[in-house]
Design goal:
This is Pyridoxamine 5'-phosphate oxidase N-terminal domain-containing protein. Pfam families: PNPOx_N. Residues 169-269 form the Pyridoxamine 5'-phosphate oxidase N-terminal domain. By secondary structure, the chain is of the alpha+beta class. The chain has 7 helices and 19 strands. The protein has a single domain, classed as Pnp Oxidase, Chain A, CATH 2.30.110.10. It is 16% helix and 42% strand. Strand 3 (74-78) and strand 4 form a beta hairpin. The longest helix has 10 residues, at 10-19. The chain is globular and about 50 Å long.
Length: 299
């Protein structure tokens, strides 16, 4: 049985207490389970995209990678098991991790058409043609800050470009980040990994320099799983993607949270390495309708 004690570690509790939302967090935490309910299984089977985060065993760096396929490529194959038909591209920062037994992973399935998202965390194991995750925690998030995209299609003749590795952000990459309305962030703790979604109007993420970017931590569900992890372990990974061209930008580094006296929270992320791949994903989504919850970024 999952309890709020097992859902939250000391890092999350410290942030909840600092913000004054422990009671709300306990209420939300009761929705976290270990099993994949029928409604969640049906949701998974409709998705063409799953985002996975973990620490690479070779370097210890945290990365996020997107996996795609025809609906049904990710599905529930047991009361506590999710299976994927497919693996990351060769050379992906998480290719080895997801081919290894027992890697602690966080995953998120996000459907812009319905503005629904589901998170499943656990341990991976390789399978013929893919991998499976035995679930430790399964839960859904509210649609706040999630942009609506009505439809998607698979571009069958799209050919991925080579993965370009850099230590700093180029001007083009900085512009790419600052035009984003969505990104994914992976964090880790001693018992697992988390992948979360961050959304806002374009401009909500700012690049301070070629080595640092920052974003506001908008009010959410009071769980503070991501910020809680960062209080104990600053390692993090980010994924930005172009929903039209399929281009991806994967970043790894360290993140810290600044708490302002007025209650505003801002996360600062220092870049250790970037992997930029043109046309990495075959999916092309329709234009977004921005979430009505998005604050307007300061000019």
């Amino acid at each position: 049985m999952t309890t709020t004690t097992s859902v939250y570690h000391a890092g999350s509790r410290a942030v909840q207490d600092r913000v004054g939302v422990r009671g709300a967090a306990d209420h939300v935490g009761r929705s976290v389970g270990q099993g994949i309910k029928p409604v969640a299984a049906a949701f998974l089977q409709l998705q063409p995209l799953l985002v996975v985060g973990a620490a690479a065993p070779e370097t210890g760096r945290v990365w996020v990678t997107p996996l795609t396929g025809d609906p049904g490529f990710v599905r529930a194959t047991g009361p506590r098991e999710m299976s994927l038909a497919g693996t990351p591209r060769p050379g992906d920062p998480l290719a080895h991790a997801l081919a290894s037994e027992g890697t602690r992973v966080g995953t998120i399935a996000l459907d812009p058409r319905t503005r629904r998202r589901m998170r499943l965390n656990g341990r991976s194991r390789p399978t013929p043609g893919g991998f499976a995750v035995e679930a430790d925690r399964v839960f859904s998030n509210c649609p706040k800050y999630l942009q609506k995209r009505e439809s998607w299609e698979t571009v069958t003749d799209r050919v991925p470009g080579p993965a370009r590795h850099t230590r700093r952000l180029t001007d083009a990459q900085r512009a790419f980040i600052e035009s984003a309305d969505t990104f994914f962030v992976a964090t880790v703790h001693k018992d697992g990994a988390e992948v979360s979604h961050r959304g806002g109007n374009p401009g909500f993420v700012r690049t301070v320099s070629p080595a640092e970017l920052t974003w506001p931590d908008y009010p959410g569900n009071a769980m503070f799983l991501t910020l809680g992890n960062l209080t104990a372990d600053p390692r993090a990974g980010l994924l930005f993607l172009d929903w039209t061209t399929g281009t991806t930008l994967q970043l790894t580094g360290e993140a810290h949270t600044d708490f302002a006296p007025d209650g505003e929270r801002r996360v600062r992320f220092a870049v250790t390495e970037a992997v930029h791949t043109e046309r990495a994903l075959p999916l092309r989504w329709s234009a977004p309708a921005y979430s009505p919850a998005n604050p307007t970024p300061p000019g």
